[in-house]
Design brief:
The chain is mainly β. The protein has one domain: Cellobiose dehydrogenase, cytochrome domain (Immunoglobulin-like, Sandwich), CATH 2.60.40.1210. 6% of the residues lie in helices and 45% in strands. It has 1 helix and 17 strands. The strands form 3 sheets. Strands 2, 3, 4, 5, 10, 11, 12 and 17 form an 8-stranded mixed β-sheet that branches. The protein has a 7-stranded mixed β-sheet with strand order 1-16-15-6-7-8-9, with helices on one face. About 6% of the residues have low confidence. It binds protoporphyrin IX containing FE and 2-acetamido-2-deoxy-beta-D-glucopyranose (NAG) (3 copies). The site of one 2-acetamido-2-deoxy-beta-D-glucopyranose has 6 residues, from strand 12. The site of one 2-acetamido-2-deoxy-beta-D-glucopyranose has 3 residues, from loops.
Length: 198
């Protein structure tokens, strides 16, 4: 086990040490989320108040130096649904749902559907991608094991890279060297206004 993996494993075990999301409203659109703000990134999520819903709305704000950002909806990379997105031009984004069975480039997970929402844009310093992810709150991994995003709180992982401009949903990228784990307060991210978000 590499030192990095050991450190991450220990961090995961001591969940109280994890960064926690807080209430955050996008200053440019009437959407409020639970978000983590770290490493000049904002990773935000909002959920329906229905606990049987299978979709969520997410927002990723990143410095333009990052060509892509990936968010694992579970605490680990393998066997979890990972949303990967980055700008393909100054006005367009490429986003995809991925899954990997091991420590290797992930494959597109075709069941999940990601739709870009209003407010997505790039300016001189940051890009911002707002999306709805449908059929994303539960998934079956390559071994047939089902996974769900916990209805109250979910540990997620985020990573990013400064190379590999996204060009298509299956674009490849190199092993990210920085990873951030955080606890998403799903219960507090629920909003009765959810359907107005898309
Ligand atoms: C794009 C989204 C990605 C996310 C969110 C992500 C997240 C993570 C996390 C949380 C871990 C540590 C825990 C675990 O899963 O075992 C990990 C480990 C690892 N990941 Fe990823 N990863 C991503 C992409 C990639 C890609 C594209 C590669 C390879 C091409 C890769 C290669 C590895 C390797 C080799 C490890 C083993 C631990 C290490 O030595 O750092 N990852 N990843
Ligand atoms: C660019 O976008 C970022 C992230 O939304 C924002 O904080 C910043 O104020 C924007 N810059 C300008 C000049 O509008
Ligand atoms: C969600 O909010 C709507 C509108 O306020 C309400 O009608 C509905 O009963 C709520 N559902 C749950 C599960 O709380
Ligand atoms: C829901 O939307 C209404 C109308 O836009 C607004 O007045 C209210 O503050 C919103 N509530 C939440 C929890 O976002």
């Amino acid at each position: 086990m590499s030192l990095k993996l050991l450190v991450i494993t220990i961090l995961y075990a001591v969940t109280s040490a994890l960064a926690q999301t807080h209430a955050w409203c996008d200053p440019d659109t009437p959407r409020c989320f639970q978000a983590i703000e770290s490493s000049d990134l904002t990773i935000a999520a909002a959920f329906s108040n229905s606990t049987t819903a299978t979709d969520f709305v997410g927002e990723i704000i990143s410095p333009v130096s990052n060509k892509w950002v990936g968010v694992s909806l579970g605490s680990r990379m393998t066997n979890n649904l990972v949303v990967v997105v980055g700008p393909s031009s100054p006005t367009a984004f490429v986003a995809s749902a991925r899954m990997s069975s091991g420590f290797q480039p992930s494959m597109v997970y075709p069941i999940a559907k990601i739709t870009q929402l209003s407010g997505s844009r790039t300016n001189a310093t940051h890009w911002k991608y707002v999306f709805r992810c449908e059929r994303c709150l539960s998934w079956t991994d390559f071994t047939g094991t089902p996974h769900t995003v916990h209805p109250k709180s979910q540990v997620q992982a985020v990573t990013w890279g400064t190379t590999a401009q996204p060009s298509n949903p299956n674009f490849g990228f190199s092993i990210p060297d920085t990873k951030l784990l955080f606890a998403l307060d799903v219960a507090s991210a629920r909003t009765a206004n959810y359907s107005s978000y898309f």
